[in-house]
Amino acid sequence: MTVLFETPRADTKPELDSALLDVLRAASVRTARTGRADETALRAVRGFGLLGLAVPAGYGGAGGDAAAVNAVLEEIARVDPSMAAILFQHFAVSAFIGAWGTPAQRERLLPRMAAGWVLAASAWGETGTGAARERVGADGSWTLDGAGYCTAGAGVCDVYLVLGRTSAAADGDARHGLRGQTFFLVPADRPGLLLEPSPDPAAMRGSAAGCVRLSGCRVTDGDRLGPLGGAGEIVAGVRESGATLGAVSAGIARAVLDLALARLGHAGLPAESPRAARLVELAVSVEAVRAMVAGAGRQGPTAVHSKLYASQATERIALEVSRLLEPAGQVTDRQLTTLLADARAVTEMGPTNQLCRELIAASLQR
Fold this sequence. Notes:
Elements: H1 18-34, H2 39-47, H3 66-79, H4 81-100, H5 103-114, E1 120-123, E2 130-132, E3 142-151, E4 159-165, E5 181-187, E6 193-197, E7 210-219, E8 224-225, H6 231-238, H7 246-264, H8 274-298, H9 303-325, H10 334-347, H11 353-364
Parallel strand pairs: 1-4, 2-4
Antiparallel strand pairs: 2-3, 3-7, 4-5, 5-8, 6-7
C-alpha cells in the first residue's frame, strides 16, 4: 500500500503557537456572526507555517504522520471548528500529492504548500463528481463537466482535487464505486472550474463552504494525480491512513466541555452532587472520543470507525450540555448553539456517517 503520511522525526511533535490559537479563537466569534471565512485567520495559518504539517520533510514540510495531523486538528477545532474543517482538506491533499504526485507535481506544489502560499481542498463526491468527455487535442486532454460538490475552503483555496470519469465503467480500480475514475489537481483559476459559495451556512460558518462545479474544464495528464482510472486505489489508502475528521469532532467536544465548566462552575462541588456527576460523565465521554481519534492515528484502518463514533458522541455531548444549561436559563447560549450545529455538520462531511456504517459493515463480512 502507498504510504500517505511520513513517520515524523522525534523532534517534530506538533506544537501550536498560542498567538495563532488566540487569532483563531477571535476569528471563530466573528465568523459565527458573519457566516464568511475570516481573512485574518487565513493569513495567520498561512503565515505560521501550519500548511506544511503534512508535507514531506524533503519538500520543506514537517513530514507529520496521521497522529500529528489528528492532534493539530483537534487543537484547532477546540477554538475554531471552521478552520479545522478547511485544514483537514488541505492536509489530505498534501498527503495525496506526497504519495501519488509525479516528481514535477511535487516540485511545483509541495514547497509552496509548506511555505503557506498554496491552500488546497478536496472537491469530489463519494460517488464521483466529474464526467469526462473523450480526450481532445494533441496534448491528450480531457474536458470535465459535472454537478458541483460542496467542500470546505471553496473560494479561498488555490488548488482543488477533483474527480472525473476517464474510461469506461468496466475499467480501472473498482473499490468504493470509483471504477474508471481519475483524480486531477486543478488550479482555482483554471477556466471551467466554477465556485458557488453557500449563501448562508447554518454550521461551520467560517469554513468557506461552497460547491465546486466543472463546466468545460480542460485537464491534461500533467494535472492527473495517480494512475489513470485509479481513484479507487487512492481512496482506499486514504481511509486506512489514520487521519480522521473525528479529530475535528474531538476538538468540538472539548470546546463544549470547556463551555459547560465555565457556565456552570465546578470548583468546590461535592463529588456526589448531581451536577458534578453529570460533569464527570461528560469529561469521560470527551476523553473516550479523544482516545478513539488518537488510536486511529496510530492504527490507520480504524479511521472510519473513529469518525463515526467521535461525531455521534460529540453531538450527544453537546445535547447533554444544553440540558445541563437549561435549568440555569441559558438554553439559548449562542456559543453552544454554534458548537452543536458544527458537531452535527461533521456527521455529514465525507465520508458521511452513513457511508462509514456501510464501510464498517462491509469490513465485518471479510
